[in-house]
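Long-time lurker, first post. I've been practising inverse folding by hand and with some scripts of my own, and I keep getting stuck on stretches where the structure tokens seem ambiguous. Below is the full token string for one chain I'm working on. Before anyone asks, I'm not after the true native sequence, just a reasonable design that respects the backbone. If someone could post their per-position residues I'd love to compare against what I wrote down in my notebook.
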């Protein structure tokens, strides 16, 4: 361990999972609000941020409150914003609170505690939280008049990024807890009950909540997400995630397998392995795992960090998870394109195993090599396209999805046109497209200028969306006349007489709720239920949805054998 890191840990300013009961207090945060930027043109930018900046200023934090057991009381209302990682965080936080005696309510007016699990990836996401707090301000005032105390908490990435502003703006929020501080929620709530504000936003180098089985928020659901790692080391110049969720650390494989088995026993039919960078998974929990060589990157890809030897890798995890239940679909998100080398057994596993979905998320972010370099993505347009060709050769019929950012720092019209051409060339089935939103603490914030006007960002985003939808519609139209295996999720939101589900490629499929033959059981006529696999013949296709007619109820294994 480095001397500065050892010193911080000795001082209680750097927490390990083993030291979770130390209950550290508050740590540093900037006082800059959303949109403020102290570094402008003509000012020499500071060096790019690293791990030290995650921890800088901790020594100046507030005194740590004395730890103490605090039994939970009252009802908790949880509200989730942002990505699927935040949904998983909500399940972890609720598991901790439930164990400490709290009850859950879905009615806002019944709550004694309201917790918002927040996102900081874009300014719009943070603004949604500020707007929500204004609504809760009136509710809290009414409760105070009635002498019925209401505690409000901000959890997750926004808590980590804006602790000081959240606590000081109108004194509305009682507790603030970062993504690595959920174990501390019972104590923080006890402090708030005494009338004080309480915060813990300390980042951890090893917290994965491996010993906490999340309480699924959608009881009886057919799908579930299982977090396999937290944090990210890629340090893309636009991304706030390393600064709100910390460095990469992976759960022990044993704890992941235990959770997936539990979900299988509960009847869950699809599990998505979840993390900021899932295919850099690296389980170092056992001594015997630490002798493995560092992995090879995809051809033409690089990283800002040195290769990390040792550990059980993602291919091993994917292999083990896929063996648990042959009737359970397995997905994973979000991978980084760099971690699919030519000899990758991950691609081979996807091709061979009938229950690993033939669908990959390959975030491109831009089609311009110049912009990709500014983003510090570690690859060129040419290397990315070579990977796409390799994936399609390795997994026939694979469906692809991607992320794109419109209007990144310094993006020209030529750069934008290259991104449009990449969308046309690859023809993704699913896309996630956003206008660039500069985030404090990122390398782009320190080194680059957010110089693309908002109206141009909006126009470029609209053009990206238009081209994506045109190409996705063409890709999906190729499935018309084919039979697709659909996992039924429930009734369609638009019509009670139709059912909705997703095919292997993660594309939504709508079909009539009618009696169909049961190919698995006694051949009698049945109606499909959530969790059933139904063979559907596609009759029409749009950019985001397929429609069809149901043929029969079947099983994942039976369908794979027939194909």
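-- Answer (accepted) --
I ran through it position by position. Result:
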């Amino acid at each position: 361990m480095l001397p500065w890191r050892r010193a911080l840990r000795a001082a209680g300013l750097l927490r390990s999972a083993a030291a979770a009961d130390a209950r550290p207090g508050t740590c540093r945060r900037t006082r800059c609000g959303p949109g403020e930027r102290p570094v402008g043109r003509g000012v020499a930018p500071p060096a790019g941020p690293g791990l030290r900046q995650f921890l800088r200023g901790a020594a100046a934090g507030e005194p740590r409150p004395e730890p103490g057991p605090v039994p939970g009381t009252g009802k908790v209302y949880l509200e989730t914003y942002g990505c699927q990682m935040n949904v998983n965080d909500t399940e972890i936080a609720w598991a901790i609170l439930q164990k400490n005696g709290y009850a859950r309510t879905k009615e806002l007016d019944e709550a004694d505690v309201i917790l918002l699990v927040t996102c900081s990836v874009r300014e719009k996401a943070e603004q949604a939280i500020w707007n929500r707090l204004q609504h809760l301000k009136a509710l809290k005032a009414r409760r105070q008049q009635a002498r019925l105390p209401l505690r409000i908490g901000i959890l997750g990435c926004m808590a980590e990024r804006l602790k000081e502003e959240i606590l000081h703006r109108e004194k509305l929020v009682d507790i603030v807890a970062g993504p690595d501080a959920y174990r501390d929620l019972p104590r923080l709530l006890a402090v708030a009950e005494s009338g004080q504000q309480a915060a813990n936003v300390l980042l951890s180098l090893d917290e994965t909540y491996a010993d906490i089985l999340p309480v699924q928020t959608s009881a009886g659901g057919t799908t579930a997400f299982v977090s396999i790692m937290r944090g990210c080391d890629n340090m893309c110049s636009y991304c706030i995630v390393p600064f709100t969720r910390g460095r990469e650390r992976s759960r022990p494989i044993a704890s992941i397998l235990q959770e997936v088995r539990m979900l299988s026993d509960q009847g869950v039919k699809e599990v998505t392995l979840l993390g900021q960078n899932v295919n850099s998974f690296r389980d170092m929990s056992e001594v015997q795992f630490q002798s493995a060589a560092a992995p090879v990157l995809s051809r033409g890809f690089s990283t800002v960090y040195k290769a990390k030897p040792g550990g059980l890798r993602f291919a091993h995890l994917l292999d083990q998870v896929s063996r648990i239940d042959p009737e359970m679909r397995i997905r994973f998100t979000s991978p980084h394109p760099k971690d699919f080398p030519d000899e990758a057994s991950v691609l081979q596993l996807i091709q061979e195993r009938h229950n690993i979905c033939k669908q990959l998320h390959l975030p491109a972010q831009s089609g311009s090599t110049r912009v990709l370099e500014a983003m510090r993505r570690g690859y060129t347009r040419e290397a990315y396209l070579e990977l796409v060709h390799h994936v399609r050769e390795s997994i026939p019929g694979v469906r692809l999805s991607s992320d794109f950012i419109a209007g990144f720092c310094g993006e020209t019209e030529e750069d934008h046109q290259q991104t449009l051409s990449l969308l046309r060339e690859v023809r993704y089935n699913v896309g996630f497209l956003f206008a660039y939103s500069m985030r404090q603490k990122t390398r782009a914030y320190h080194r680059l200028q957010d110089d693309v006007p908002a109206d141009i960002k909006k126009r470029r985003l609209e053009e990206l969306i238009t081209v994506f939808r045109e190409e996705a519609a063409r890709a999906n139209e190729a499935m018309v006349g084919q039979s697709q295996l659909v996992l039924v999720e429930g009734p369609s939101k638009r019509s009670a007489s139709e059912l909705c589900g997703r095919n292997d490629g993660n594309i939504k499929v709508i079909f009539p709720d009618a009696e169909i033959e049961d190919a698995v059981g006694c051949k009698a006529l049945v109606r499909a239920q959530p969790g059933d696999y139904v063979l559907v013949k596609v009759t029409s296709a749009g950019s985001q949805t397929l429609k069809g007619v149901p043929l029969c109820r079947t099983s994942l294994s039976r369908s794979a054998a027939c194909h």
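A couple of notes from the structure itself: The chain has three domains: 75-200, 223-476, 482-562. The longest helix spans residues 454-477. Happy to go over any region you disagree with.
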